Fold:
Amino acid sequence: MKFLLRLALAVSLAASAYSHACLYIHGYQHIPMIGTAFLVQASVSLSLALLIVVGGPWWIEWAAAAMAGGSLVAFVLSRTVGLFGFTERGWDPSPHAALTVVAEALCVLLWAGAMVRWPQPKRVATTP
Structure:
């Protein structure tokens, strides 16, 4: 069951990476700061997704949740107060805005579920 959760986490992160890469290619690359952020988000998210699938260390899942959570915060900022002078309205560009929000929220929820169900083992200090 843990493998299925890791796989679902990786798929949701890869979906977010795909949307950010598409948006980068189709115009966001020309937006200062935002274009670079989209390229970095897509690259890091895809790398984390691959590491999760192949069974990377436990902290990779934490990094995935942090990446997804940070992307959600950036999405909200871009639609409220702006982010580096960049603002958007509503769910445009469609369908990528909705797809990324769903994928990133799912990633965070799957990570939280995995942490509740399978907490990391406590490290026991040994004395010589």
